[in-house]
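My main concern about presentation is that the manuscript never shows what a single data entry looks like. Each protein is reduced to its one-letter sequence and a matching series of backbone shape codes. For the editor and my fellow referees, an illustration may be useful. For illustration, here is how one protein appears when written out as sequence plus structure tokens:
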Amino acid sequence: MNQATLHQLKVFEAAARHSSFTRAAEELFLTQPTVSMQIKQLTKSVGLPLFEQVGKRLYLTEAGRELSVTCRQIFETIAQFEMKVADLKGLKQGQLRLAVITTAKYFIPRLLGRFCQLYPGIDISLQVTNHEGILERMASNMDDLYVMSQVPENTDVTFEPFLENPLVVFAPINHPLSQEKNIPIQRLADEPFIMREPGSGTRRATQSLFDEHGVKVKVKLELGSNEAIKQAIVGGLGISVLSRHTLLTDALEFSILDVQHFPIPRHWYMVYPSGKQLSIVARAYYEYLLEAAKEIVTRDTAITSAMVGKIQE
């Protein structure tokens, strides 16, 4: 590969990531013939095919998959160097690649906005996905940091809790139980219940608590997103257990029931593969998030205090 250039590797990486020469050309503001020519020259330099086309789909060959991994390592090393030089100059600039679990979308974007104001030279790439998607991205080392509500098992990672993520019982604003205090958990068995889908971390934690106390709820609906569950609650279809953070945008439509053994204590974690050296930018965000979480705790405590056991006038 003595004749391969960084430009060719950049073109290849984009084509490999999109599985498309056309989309790579759009991303890099090149023509498709230019992309094809660069890939052809790189293939000649490697001496092995990098792509194969089956029907209308483009796939990486074994050599292509190896080169794709190598490209990510090369570009990450270059980015690290550029950020180090910027840091030596007294600047904070570069790129932060962040992947977060779906529920974290309720507060992470706000914190990113403030972070960008502090460091306008930093570009942010934010991916929002489910637990399985986070694990896949982590296995491919695609991001700098991961925000999760459950530390992955059987995976060598470094993690630190930075914010409480309590699970609470959501009900419509006018639900009869919203007027009561210290509700026995067994009373939930009389209510139509809306559950997250099987495999959800929220569902596992909720079911574990119910099993511990011998509570069998009547599951009326199973839904795969917090937003869908919230709409079902507002529609009077039942009550549910969700992260308190999902309440931040529409608190006036819900009450939090004061049920025994709730909230279920959980945490948000910052996670990254063990052995990974955080970039200067990632380290700056890591430290920023630890400090910013203190303000979220203060605000959420005030919201919860106002809503638990709300008495209708």
In short: Confidence is low (pLDDT under 50) at residues 309-313. The CA atoms of residues 65 and 86 lie 32 Å apart. The chain is about 40% helix and 25% strand.
